[in-house]
Specification:
Layout (H helix, E strand, L loop, with lengths): L1 H24 L3 H15 L3 H10 L22 H19 L6 H7 L4 H9 L3 E9 L5 E9 L11 H4 L4 H4 L2 H4 L2 H11 L3 E12 L2 E14 L2 E8 L1 H17 L1 E7 L4 E4 L1 H6 L23 H13 L4 E8 L5 E12 L5 E10 L1 H38 L12 E8 L9 E8 L5 E8 L3 H19 L5 H13 L7 E9 L4 E7 L5 E4 L2 E4 L19 E4 L5 E5 L1 H4 L6 H13 L5 H12 L8 E8 L1
Length: 615
């Protein structure tokens, strides 16, 4: 149970430390966990210890970190806009679908050869189509027919020559009406004026799907109708969107200065990095120091001078003071582009906003300093705990000789000073020939456990002078521990032995049961499991009476001997019982054999063994 409590405690401390560090650094908990791993690695300590140091140091607040302040972007085409395109397109389709198309095939047959149209289609590198007009009863153009398309022609839905030839334009592409291109085609047909649009936003729909893209379109009149060439800028738009997203996500901006014309071309993120609005004119290289923090002016001026005098690329970090007075840290790369004369003709510049990174670094540095201070305080507490334990517990060769029995004891502190606990033992010989012996374990580790151990042991020795039975003594001891500040708990076995009557009176307060070895057999004593000390105020503890005889050996121990995270406690006690059954009858030898065969973990907890041989 102690190991389970320890594992649960470690997980809870780790979770709390992650939240504390996330708040300090202004980062998500997942990123805070990564920083906690790096801090533990940097300080050469275990993760659990690093988390404990953070939690002990207190939650505090942010210590200089900067929150990212960015939100996830919305989709570029909102559902309302897409629905509007579909609705308008459906209106167009309902209108044109009602028109009679029975004569379309005959109309195409009557179209004479058009060498001009053929030349346009064969010479076009982009999608191209030959459109012939379909006139209504009033003589006006009601639609166009696809008379021919070139081999590379594709519409927004990927349809080409085979799918579109012979179909009407508005039925296959209602976006021509929505964008006004249909009217433009009619105007070209009527007037002969060439149409050329280099980049328009185009949307169309078909079968419940809408598509949008920038496109370039040209239209010329030919003897039998018009020829249209077009290009969708899907790939260019995709690349532009990706670059924009890269700049936004990484806070990277790009700029170019044309030294010949004095013009500057900066991306939106570049302007944002320097705190400029989209309509502001970017500063030229020699004006750049004007937007830089005063303390960083020499560095920027030196970088600009290096570019022009030595004609070499430079990189530097500087701060920009925002309109709210908050500094922004930028890492800047710049390079001159040289002309044929070897002189700079333009400057390329890239900046990255690293304000958040610098904030996290400052916060991590301060957190590391705080952890080092806490680590020093914790180490001091551990040294005090070790010293207190040595001062309170007597050495084995200083044990008081108890009447009617031969005793041997081993009390070993945990090898890891962080796991030093509250194991204790006590012995006392009474004037009337009786003997008192006790073993216990104050809950916890470190200085609090050592302090609780000292007060528990000394309190018991003081109460023993009353001569009362063990149950009464443990009841008083329970009240004493319950009134401690800070509160404490622990386990204990307190026993009186009367050698004249070979009678053992004892009480168990939540402690592992003693094991009696008699005539080559070993078994744990029947125990009344009263609650541990400090858990139940006012509890009346039971005094158990056990008859002993000469040659019996009583074995007491703390949980450090039998508890392991990978084994059941009852199974470990059974194993200990079997070892004692086959062990020597001499107390000193018994302790050596138990320690050798139980394979207990010296690093995990204190371990105390107590063997008493009845003479």
């Amino acid at each position: 149970m102690e190991d389970l409590r320890g594992a649960a405690h470690d997980r809870a401390v780790l979770a709390e430390a992650r939240v504390v560090l996330a708040r300090r650094l202004g980062v998500p908990p997942g990123e805070a966990l990564q920083h906690l791993i790096w801090l533990a690695r940097d300080l050469d300590i275990e993760m659990a210890e690093a988390a404990s140091l953070l939690v002990k140091d207190g939650g505090g607040g942010p210590v200089g970190a900067v929150v990212a302040g960015r939100r996830a972007p919305r989709t570029e085409e909102v559902p309302a806009k897409r629905q509007a395109v579909l609705s308008d397109a459906e209106d167009v389709l309902r209108r044109v679908t009602a028109e009679d198309t029975g004569g379309d095939a005959e109309l195409l047959v009557r179209v004479p050869d058009d060498p001009a149209a053929t030349a346009v289609l064969e010479g076009a590198l982009d999608s191209a189509a030959h459109l012939v007009p379909v006139r209504g009863p009033d003589g006006n153009v009601a639609d166009f027919l696809f008379a021919e398309l070139n081999g590379v022609a594709r519409d927004m839905f990927g349809r080409g020559r085979e799918e579109l030839t012979g179909l009407r334009l508005l039925r296959t592409d209602p976006g021509a009406v929505l964008s006004g291109l249909f009217d433009d085609y009619v105007r070209v047909l009527d007037t002969g004026t060439r149409l050329e649009r280099s980049s328009i936003q185009y949307s169309t729909a078909q079968r419940g799907l809408s598509r949008s893209s920038r496109m370039s379109v040209r239209c010329v009149r030919v003897p039998t109708g018009v020829c249209v060439t077009w290009r969708y800028h899907l790939a260019e738009d995709r690349i532009a969107r990706r670059l924009e997203r890269v700049e936004r996500l990484a806070l990277i901006g790009f700029g170019e200065w044309d030294l010949a014309t004095g013009e500057a071309d900066w991306t939106p993120q570049m302007l944002a990095n320097y705190g400029l609005s989209p309509d502001e004119v970017p500063p030229m290289p020699h004006d750049l120091p004007k937007v830089v923090a005063d303390d960083d002016l020499p560095l920027v001026e030196e970088a600009v001078q290096t570019m022009f005098s030595r004609r070499e690329p430079v990189e530097a970090e500087h701060r920009v003071i925002g309109h709210d007075g908050t500094p922004r840290h930028l890492w800047v790369f710049a390079e001159p582009v040289l002309g044929e004369s070897g002189l700079p003709v333009s400057i390329n510049i890239v900046s990255q906003d690293i304000t958040r990174r610098r904030g996290v670094e400052r916060a991590l540095a301060e957190t590391r300093r705080q952890m080092l201070r806490q680590q020093a305080r914790t180490a001091q507490e551990r040294r005090v705990a070790v010293t207190l334990r040595r001062a309170i517990l007597p050495d084995e060769d200083e044990l008081e000789q108890l009447p009617g029995m031969c005793t041997s004891i081993r009390s070993m502190a945990a090898e890891s000073t962080a796991r030093i606990g509250g194991d204790w033992f006590a012995t006392k010989a009474f004037q009337d020939g009786r003997a008192m012996f006790a073993i216990g374990d104050a809950a916890g580790h470190g200085l609090p456990a050592a302090a609780a151990m000292a007060r528990t042991r000394n309190g018991l020795l003081g109460l023993t002078c009353t001569g009362e039975r063990p149950g009464r003594l443990v009841g008083w001891l329970n009240e004493l521990i319950g009134a401690m500040d800070p509160p404490a708990t622990g386990t204990a076995i307190v026993a009186h032995y009367d050698p004249a009557r070979h009678l053992l009176e004892w009480t168990c307060a939540g402690h592992p049961p003693p094991i009696l070895v008699r005539d080559g057999r070993a078994a744990p004593l029947e125990v009344v499991r009263d609650p541990m000390l400090g858990a139940m105020p006012g509890w009346e503890y039971t005094t158990i009476t056990t008859g002993l005889k000469s040659g019996d050996m009583l074995f007491l121990y703390t949980d450090g001997l039998v508890e392991r995270r990978d084994a059941d406690l009852d199974e470990r006690i059974v194993r200990l019982t079997h070892i004692l059954r086959d062990s020597s009858s001499r107390p000193e030898r018994v302790l050596d054999e138990v320690l050798a065969r139980m394979e207990h973990d010296r690093a995990a907890d204190d371990t105390t063994l107590f063997a008493l041989y009845m003479e």
